[in-house]
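Before going further, learn to read the protein records used in this course. The integers have meaning only within a learned vocabulary of local backbone shapes. The record below shows the convention in full.
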Amino acid sequence: MKKILAIETTAKYASVALLLKEEKIGSNDEVVFFKKSNKEMNHLVDLMEIIDFVLKKAGIEISDVDMVAPSIGPGSFTGIRIGVSTARALSQACGIGCIPVRTLKAMAELDRNREVDFMHYACTIINARRNQTYAALWLFDESGNIREIFKQGQYMIDDLLDEISRINEESNYPVYFYGDGIDAYLEKIEKAMKNKTFDYEIAPLNQR
């Protein structure tokens, strides 16, 4: 069984998940142990405590982990430094692998939970404040294959929504929004999308 320790420090709350994946070919079974900080922007204080909690919950030691996977942003610069530095230290000290995870790509993977089998877009959006976002647009096909339509970057919210509308002008695929940028710019998103010919949907609170 492969053990992956995932570290997320790019947003307001630090969080850690331990994925236990069966290595048997064709098996998708996994068990996830998860813990999130209770305080905003308290990554430096909380992160190691959260990691320890998750490992104890799983009944393993850090040396038993096969891979540590920190989120590398975009997002909080200080948070990213804390998460990546912690992951690197654990990797070097314990001799385990370390793989970077793109935050916006990981958010797009949440779309698979809906198990839809038609062409659609997923927009992953992080609040960068002052009407700015970190965002990317992804296209899912009928088989669940994903393709990046425009690369992750920093966009003004109005420019982002205009670009989505332009790209989708002919295809009219549904658009699904994920990330905490929804909370900051929900009114703008709904205003820009409501009169379009394509459908859109806002992710639930636990996926923002």
Summary: The CA atoms of residues 161 and 191 lie 10 Å apart. Strands lie at 2-8, 15-21, 30-36, 67-70, 97-98, 120-129, 132-140, 146-156, 175-178, 200-202. The first strand starts at residue 2 and ends at 8.
